[in-house]
Amino acid sequence: MIIISGTYRTGTSLMMQIMEEAGFDVLGEKFPKAWKGANNHLNKEGFYESRWIDKGVNKENCKLDPKATQLKACKVFTHGLATTDIEYMHKCILMTRDWREQHNSATILDETNRKSHGKKLVGYYPPGQVFLINYAKFLADFSKRKYPSIVVDFNDLVSQPVKTCQRIRNFLGAGRFDLAAQRIKPKLKTVSETGPEWKEPFHLFMDRFYKKLKTGHLEATFLKEAQAWINKVSPEIQKFNELRKSEDGDDATPQAEVDGAQVAQVDQGEASHPAA
Prior knowledge:
InterPro entries: P-loop_NTPase. The chain is α/β, with parallel strands linked by helices. The chain is 44% helix and 8% strand.
């Protein structure tokens, strides 16, 4: 499969739309019935969600022959990569987005989703924490398994569709991405890049983390710094997840879980990934 990964509100759905337009088979439901249409205005072209989005694709939950899925696109969030069998990981497109913008967009989606299900609004994770934990999971998994990957930034895709789609075409070696580029419209972007001026030490670190993730160059010393921040914010994340569980019970869906977010032992060369 061509795995489309990233975290919430980073352009994974847009990339699935592009893959479909480029002629690939896409797996997933455009508008999940469980959402009751409440979130459709946040992505009018569809979300492409499947049972694999959180749990990954493996022989336990997928009966498709891996050899027959090489040109099928499937959306799997970064926390589902570790449980995706390598036989299904033919190639991976990792979507990124400015972390401040991602946080704003994810907060809006979360509030809308909770309201549509009559759930109590309990707030969202502190800025940057979901982004850090979930992309750390990609780095940890990629460093072990080295599947072919490329990083595509949401804002680059929206502002430079032709150039960015050509990069994707070069990476995949197939697809009508000249047609796909025509589908990308700035109006698909629902949240402005301009966000709160968070300037605490953690926020400034996150600016660096996002830039290094985009370029694919993460030095061992930087990863140790990242691990220190992961360790520091983990108790806050766990506390927030417990709050959600107390409110939602079995329906609780944490958007960041600290298990597997370990990057301190990743060597410099193993952490670097092809962004270009």
